[in-house]
Amino acid sequence: MAGGAKVAMVAVLIAMVANVSHTTESAVTCQLVVSSLTPCANYLIKGGPVPKSCCNGVQSLYKDAETTSDRQTACRCLEQAATLVPGIKVDNAVNLPAKCDVSIPYKISPVFNCST
Fold it and tell me: What's the rounded Cα separation, in Å, for the pair 10 and 107?
């Protein structure tokens, strides 16, 4: 996978979870991130219709990533997981939130820093 595609996927998914309320409990684990987004892999690589199971996972992750720590955990997990999914197309990753009715207030970019 091209580095830009991997970073774009991470940026899209982190942006999706970045605009949620804050709590003190951490709800996000790498297992949750991977299981939530695995149904999206085919869409991210090939495009076409987004499976309902993918959107369910995107929406669930968006709701679960409530704190800065949750979002940073999700970001780091996605960086690791994205290396296992070759061929992700940046445009598909950028379009995923809107296709799943998740509104994000950030510009999607192939450059994203998980620590911020």
Answer: 13
